Amino acid sequence: MPPSSHNITSSDLFTDYLVIGAGVIGLSIAKHLSDAGKECLVIEKQGLFGEETSSRNSEVIHAGIYYPQGSFKARLCVTGKHQLYNYCQQRAIEHKPLGKLIVATCSEEEEQLSLIESKAQANGVLDLERLSQAQVNALEPNVKSTSALLSPSTGIIDAHQYMLSLVGDIEDASNAIVYKAEVTGIEPTANGWTVSINNQGEQLTVQCRWLINAAGLHANALAELYMTDVPPIHYCRGLYFSYSGTPVFQHLIYPVPEKNTVGLGIHATLDMAGQVKFGPDTQYLDSIDYQMPVDKALAEIKAKWAQAIKRYFPTLDEQKLQPSYAGIRPKLSGPNEAAQDFRIEGPNEHGLSNLIHLLGIESPGLTSSLAIGEYVLQLIDQYES
Ligand SMILES: Cc1cc2nc3c(=O)[nH]c(=O)nc-3n(C[C@H](O)[C@H](O)[C@H](O)COP(=O)(O)OP(=O)(O)OC[C@H]3O[C@@H](n4cnc5c(N)ncnc54)[C@H](O)[C@@H]3O)c2cc1C
């Protein structure tokens, strides 16, 4: 069932809570506001929900293994994972807890596995299992390793079905999402905010008490409209290649991440139909560009990827690697800078009343989305009580 589209009419020109962005984060926030009986409006510049980063990712439900202890990423991923599995079960959203293997291919990487295990434990991820080479072989005959860590609570989800369900929750509460409506101006008022919107060529203004900026890759640019000292955004693209033919793995297969890299290494994930895909890699860009490489650039990337993948999948057939799609991470850290946490900031952090913004919501944003929605609702309730 396609989502209902909604036009802004003069009776809509005030709302209590205005959420910018119908990606998985804006939708989860609006779902939590709706469940709490609050009146809200979601403004989305694309013609449908989830057209940007929320539909250009790996669709992996992460366990919460790698993030620094106590960070938003660690806490919200672990809580969000449990909430997401429960929500998927309640709403019959397609998902599979396939499990993931982090595979070591030499003694140095085996030491890394121990560090990863301790980090996971510190984050409350207590279900990791150390597997011997023989145990890995029994589970995944195509994988070459010296040993591995099995994360049973890592899985995959149909992100589109998930977002469609969130849209249903919002609309069931008589709240609306307005598509093809781009926020172009934000001004403070005595009681909240005035938001200027270009709705298919028509200029409108909406008054709201609370404004929530969940605009993903564009959140920092929108923040420039209401504050100074906005952290710069860095666009970091990840490419995916599908692997044609019958599935060669049953689990998600990740190499041990190389030290000082921004990604997790070229790994293998599966989609709901069992199709294997490899990626994403990491490449910083000056602007948003989803184009897949062609010709010489494509050949070079395939050769580089093949070398990385063959370390754990020696029988890779390069001919079966087909360019698939790209996603762009909204990173707050640039090349060679330390990874940064999500920035979910309210009045205490940025000094502006009745406003929450979410910057740098890269991975594990999909997994954390329900926990992020819950956190934003709690933040608002804290100021309103
Ligand atoms: C390559 C890659 C792989 C990833 N893999 C995973 C994974 O496996 N698991 C996981 O948990 N996470 C993963 N993530 C992270 C996850 O995809 C994101 O954290 C999440 O999708 C972010 O959602 P969002 O709603 O913040 O952003 P978006 O989905 O980008 O939504 C923002 C919305 O705001 C709208 N918008 C922007 N500006 C305006 C404006 N001015 N007016 C109105 N609307 C506006 C946009 O059109 C967009 O729809 C991955 C990310 C990438 C890039």
Tell me the major beta sheet: 8 strands, mixed
- Percent of residues in β-strands: 25-35%
Query: How many domains, in number, for the residues?
Result: 2
Q: List SSEs in N-to-C order.
A: EHEEHEEHEHEEHEEEEHEEEEEHEEHEH
Q: Please name the CATH topology of the largest domain.
A: FAD/NAD(P)-binding domain
Q: Which hetero compounds are present in the coordinates?
A: flavin-adenine dinucleotide
Please give the CATH class of the largest domain: Alpha Beta
Count the E strands: 20
CATH arch. level architecture of the largest domain? 3-Layer(bba) Sandwich
Percent helix: 25-40%
Query: Judging from the principal axes of the Cα atoms, what is the shape?
Result: globular
Overall pLDDT score: 95
What's the name of the CATH homologous superfamily of the largest domain? FAD/NAD(P)-binding domain
Q: How many helices does DSSP assign?
A: 9
Distance between the termini: 38 Å
What Rg do the Cα atoms give? 21 Å
Structural class: alpha+beta
Outline the low-pLDDT stretches.
Answer: 1-5
Domain FAD dependent oxidoreductase: 16-378
Family: Belongs to the L2HGDH family.
Cofactor: FAD
Protein name: NAD(P)/FAD-dependent oxidoreductase
